[in-house]
Amino acid sequence: MPKALCLISLVASILIVVLFLADAAMGFLGMQDVAPLRSANLMMDIAFVVLGGVLIYLSWATFREQR
């Protein structure tokens, strides 16, 4: 069960990083109309990408410890 929770956390954090990275990139390139979150706030996008990356690292490190 702990391995499954680590993998679920890893997948969820990857989805968060991809979503907010796409929103920031599209907002930066001037495509606010097609951005997933309509490029509401660049600082929020950057914060979620960084914190999602931290969560990816923590999930991966915990998954490797479970072996």
Automatic annotation (TrEMBL):
Keywords, in A-Z order: Membrane, Transmembrane, Transmembrane helix
Transmembrane parts of this sequence: 40-63
Protein name: Uncharacterized protein
Species assigned in the record: Rubripirellula lacrimiformis
